[in-house]
From TrEMBL:
Molecular-function GO terms, alphabetical: transmembrane transporter activity
Record protein name field: ABC3 transporter permease protein domain-containing protein
GO cellular component annotations of the record: plasma membrane
Pfam family of the protein (one): FtsX
Keywords: Cell membrane, Membrane, Transmembrane, Transmembrane helix
Limits of the MacB-like periplasmic core domain: 23-235
Coiled coil: none
Ranges that cross the membrane: 20-43, 287-306, 342-363, 375-396, 416-436, 698-716, 749-769, 781-803
Entry's localization field: Cell membrane
Lineage of source species: Bacteria, Pseudomonadati, Bacteroidota, Bacteroidia, Marinilabiliales
Record carries keyword Cell membrane: yes
Superkingdom of source: Bacteria
Keyword Cell inner membrane: no
Span of domain ABC3 transporter permease C-terminal: 700-813
């Protein structure tokens, strides 16, 4: 008699109680999708480089503070992921705790010749035979233990092999690898391996690896990423202290020892954000924002589910009492409730799964149910058990069987705390979303360059491009579609950290006085539409390549001889220097006009290179790099040989045509080196990729949390108004107007939301302040941000409640009293 027919339960859910069931199903579906997606993304982010069997003992060594040691003076980067092999070549001999080590060094401007076809190598690195001794990457073809044993061996990814050869069965084949300075046809390399694509949870993902004997390379491989494999009992903290002491002890008088850091390979992706990282790493802040959003969604869905089940319980109280009188036990009622809950939860899981598959629009991560089947089952089972128990709580806590004659509290007042809790979470999420939106908008206007979508940066070009910059610029500017063509030392998003001592008129000469050097082309400031704070930016052309390549020679006798030969064509050149605001303050000046015309000179190791010249202008800080670190004090000169990035600005109406013309001119001069460029807006978007992900996902979660809160408020207000039908009828019969009744009910809900706003403000302020902490330049947390969130929440509450209140208030009081 008391057994429940599952079909009847389903029909009951879909018909009689469809409003409550729909709200429950939508809420649980959204929560399931959020929890599943965030769990999968978090597991993936935390799993980076865990697949290496030696991961516990593998560390990358980073440079923290640069040294000035011998020939290394002034050429180290601060806080860099890569460092010169000069510092690590003796590690195995001097530190027995280092069991093994390997390098990964960027190649630059290499061409690969296969069957007379020339390819420009992208994403390729030099390494040595120890690479596969440390790392567990899989080889599809070839022998891991011998693949890179000898110099001039090459292994390729499966994708690269198919791209260059059309096949992966190429072991033993020979290819020519030619650098731009090779006078012959290049070096012959032998293919010794094909590796599978590196896992997507690897912080490194090269396409080509070339072997090189680092000991015989005479430090010519530049700045590699250096990985150390320690003995099992090694304490990394003790090692790095010993290494830093070693360098302090072994530097000569007047030299400065560098300082180093270690980071475990598994921590690189989420915790390392240094210069020259192998890729754009993730961020723990992003994970916390995602988890914060998913938890809010889950809590609101749980509150709604509990409240709506309580509402249904009170609505069905008379029916339940009849069942109990007829012999139904709490177990019978609980079984019926569990079956109802199970149907709703299963339907929610199916809908939530579909929703999850579309979350990749908001963050660059595609979930696959087949790949994440175990996680899917865990989350699904957790939801079935958790929401199943939650659905039983109203039945158990109200103790229906023991309180048949007791009149239960009606209306929505018993749900006030949970309703306030929902809106506290929603308002906090909404406030943090507004803060992130404002900060991201701030980044767009913070960096130089109007119409960033019309400016491109060209980098990683051959040395021949530096030699022929003047010719390239002349040819490019013949096309009216291209407004400006200029150059600078560093690519957008990066700052120079090369410091030199200097001499300046009016400043006491001290060797410890050092300042960062930057270099630009004369049209750099015009391209970015930068106006001076003082002085003039109508700059003369700087020194040319021929003069600079002679002046940079550190041997004065040779340099002077060559410069004397160039004097007739270069005698009119005058050195010009520009200061940024931070440099002005560092030098002790307040008024920019006070430094104009003063003499300045860098004490460069090649004494002829930087001539004494005038400070011709002071500019505002460029903010050319990121917003995570403070602006560097810079003195900007005009040195063509230093400029490693070219910039072009197009006419917005002819952007595509301008790009084609630029490509044509580039290929005429450098046919073997394709032009590699990025639009300025894309560069900065990539720089703030994690923050954009946080903005998009938290916006989504804020919208979803508000939607769930609206549904919860709608259901509770419906229930409340239904139980106030008699009260409304009596008041109308006594002369109360519909507006007065509406004002009272809406006012009640508005007070609850206002209270939620008061509670949410300090929570939101703390969360927003913590999120902004990583920025050196950030927005102010203005009062209106919090006020806006509160106004939005109260308006939502008013709109949600108003329609139902109006419908109830305008009914004939006779009808209301009759139905009661």
């Amino acid at each position: 008699m008391h057994k429940l027919n599952i079909n009847k339960v389903a029909m009951n859910i879909l018909t009689k109680k469809s409003k409550w069931a729909t709200i429950n199903i939508i809420g649980i579906a959204i929560a399931f999708a959020s929890v599943l997606f965030v769990s999968a993304y978090t597991i993936k982010e935390l799993s980076f480089d865990n697949f290496h069997s030696k991961a516990d003992q593998i560390y990358r060594i980073n440079i923290d503070e640069p040294g000035r040691v011998g020939f290394m003076e002034n050429i180290d980067d601060v806080n860099s992921a890569s460092l010169h092999s000069y510092y690590t070549e003796s590690l195995l001999d001097n530190f027995p705790e280092v069991k093994n080590m390997t390098y990964l060094s960027h190649t630059f401007n290499l061409n690969l010749k296969v069957n007379e076809e020339i390819h420009s190598l992208e994403n390729s690195f030099y390494t040595d035979h120890t690479f596969f001794e440390l790392f567990d990457f899989k080889l599809l073809k070839g022998n891991r233990s011998t693949a890179l044993n000898n110099p001039y061996e090459i292994i390729l990814s499966k994708t690269a092999a198919i791209q260059y050869f059309g096949d992966i069965d190429i072991i033993g084949k020979e290819v020519k690898v030619k650098g731009e300075f090779d006078s012959n046809n290049g070096q012959t390399f032998t293919v010794t391996g094909i590796f599978d694509e590196f896992p997507d949870n690897s912080h490194m993902a090269p396409d080509v690896l070339l072997s090189i004997n680092f000991e015989e390379s005479n430090n010519s491989i530049g700045y590699p990423y250096t990985y150390l494999h320690f003995e099992n009992e090694t304490n990394p903290n003790h090692f790095i202290k010993s290494l830093n002491k070693y360098w302090k002890k072994n530097v000569a008088e007047g030299e400065l020892a560098p300082t180093f850091q270690l980071i475990n390979i598994r921590d690189i992706h989420l915790q390392s954000h240094k210069k020259d990282e192998l890729g754009t790493n993730g961020n723990m802040n992003t994970l916390w924002v995602l988890i914060f959003g998913a938890v809010i969604i889950l809590l609101i869905a749980m509150i709604n589910y509990y409240n709506l089940n309580s509402v249904q319980l009170h609505s069905d109280l008379n029916n339940l009492k009849i069942k109990i009188i007829n012999g139904a036990s709490l177990i019978n009622l609980s079984s019926s409730q569990l079956k109802k809950s199970a149907l709703q939860i299963i339907a929610s899981i199916l809908i939530g799964t579909i929703i999850t598959l579309h979350f990749d629009y908001f963050i660059d991560f595609q979930i696959s149910i087949s790949k994440h089947i175990i996680l899917f089952l865990y989350v699904a089972i957790g939801f079935i058990i958790g929401f199943g128990i939650l659905g039983l709580l109203p039945l158990i806590t109200n103790n229906i069987t023991a309180n048949l004659s007791q009149k239960k509290e009606e209306g929505s007042k018993k749900f006030v705390i949970s309703l306030i809790g929902q809106f506290v979470l929603s308002i906090a999420a909404l406030t943090l979303t507004i803060v992130i939106h404002k900060q991201i908008t701030f980044t767009k206007d913070f960096h130089p360059g109007k119409n960033k979508e019309t400016i491109i940066a060209i980098k990683n070009f051959p040395y021949a491009a530096i030699q022929n910059f003047d010719l390239l610029k002349e040819n490019v500017l013949k096309h009216p579609e291209i407004n400006y063509f200029s150059a600078t030392m560093m690519p957008p998003g990066m700052s120079g950290e090369f410091e030199y001592s200097f001499e300046m008129e009016g400043i006491e000469k001290k060797t410890e006085n050092r300042i960062t050097i930057n270099s630009v082309d004369q049209d750099f400031f015009k391209l970015f539409e930068i106006q001076p704070l003082a002085g003039n930016l109508n700059l003369q052309k700087g020194s040319n390549f021929a003069w600079e390549s002679s002046a940079i020679i550190p041997y004065e006798e040779i340099s002077n001889k060559r410069l004397a030969e160039l004097e007739p064509i270069h005698h009119s050149f005058k050195e010009q220097y520009i200061l940024n605001e931070t440099a002005l303050k560092k030098l002790g000046f307040k008024n920019p006009q006070d430094v104009i015309g003063k003499q300045f000179k860098f004490n460069f190791r090649a004494s002829n290179f930087f001539k004494r010249g005038e400070i011709v202008a002071v500019i505002k800080d460029l903010h050319y790099a990121d917003m995570f670190s403070h602006e560097t004090a810079e003195v900007i000169g005009l040195k063509q040989i230093f400029n490693g990035t070219y910039l072009a600005k197009f006419n917005p109406k002819n952007k595509a045509e301008a790009l084609n013309k630029l490509n044509e001119e580039w290929n005429k001069l450098f046919p073997n080196y394709p032009m590699k460029y990025d639009f300025l807006n894309d560069i900065y978007a990539k720089l703030y990729r994690n923050q954009y992900n946080e903005m998009r996902t938290l916006t989504l979660f804020a919208i979803l949390s508000i939607l769930l809160s609206i549904m919860g408020m709608y259901a509770l207000s419906s229930y409340s108004i239904q139980h106030k039908t008699k009260e409304i009828g009596i008041r109308k019969a006594n002369g109360a107007s519909s507006i007065e009744i509406m004002r009272e009910i809406i006012g009640e809900y508005s007070i609850w939301v206002a209270l939620a706003f008061v509670i949410a403000c300090p929570i939101a302020y703390y969360a927003a302040s913590d999120w902004l902490e990583s920025f050196a330049y950030k927005i102010n947390l203005s009062w209106w941000i919090f006020a806006l969130s509160g106004v939005i929440a109260i308006l939502i509450a008013i709109i949600t409640v108003s329609w139902q209140t109006w419908n109830a208030a305008r009914k004939d009081p006779v009808y209301a009293l009759k139905n009661e």
